[in-house]
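Late entry, written up from scratch paper. The run itself happened at the end of the previous shift, but nothing got recorded in the book at the time, so transcribing now.
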Amino acid sequence: MNRKQLIASGIVGLVLAITILFILPNLSGGPLAYFAVFALLFGIAFFAGWAFASTGDMPDDEGERNK
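Output as recorded:
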């Protein structure tokens, strides 16, 4: 695992930990509200981690990997 992937995993883990420890216990409104907030924050964390890890790692479509 390279450094970017490690940082991206840390971002996802940190957002999930904050969600579980601080936001979910303070919600009222039933399990649907829990699921909605969890899904929203998980999506944000996943997208942020994926975008951070993929910047500069993808080769161009013209075959830059084979040069």
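The longest helix spans residues 31-54.
(Scratch paper discarded after transcription.)
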